[in-house]
Amino acid sequence: QIVTMTSTGDEPLLITSIAITGQNNGDFLEDDDCPRSPTSLLPGDHCKVRVIFSPTEIGLLTADVTITDNAPDSPQTVPLTGIGVGGKPALE
User: Residue 69's CB: how many other CB atoms inside 10 A?
Assistant: First the structure.
């Protein structure tokens, strides 16, 4: 799955970190092309966060993508849910 982050404010967005957090954080991998502070995402610009589900267990697995930045509502979270099925991942 790919999440597109867009800087919608009037000021540059300074991203401190992007991480997988939560109960089953080891079952999800994150890769992104987002700049980290002190480099910023300018207003109107975007970057992409790609999440790969790689389950180590069978059953319902949950985590979050947690994005920490200089926005007033930081950190932002994107919930992740996947179902590990017999060694084959199925992302919801």
Answer: 22
Which pLDDT does position 36 carry in this prediction?
94
Assign 3-class secondary structure to the chain.
CEEEEECCCCCCECEEEEEEECCCHHHEEEEECCCCCCCCECCCCEEEEEEEECCCCCEEEEEEEEEEECCCCCCEEEEEEEEEECCEEEEC
Q: Taking the model in full, what pTM does it have?
A: 0.84
**Strands, sheet with 76-85, edge to edge from the N-terminal-most edge strand:** 15-21, 59-69, 76-85, 88-91
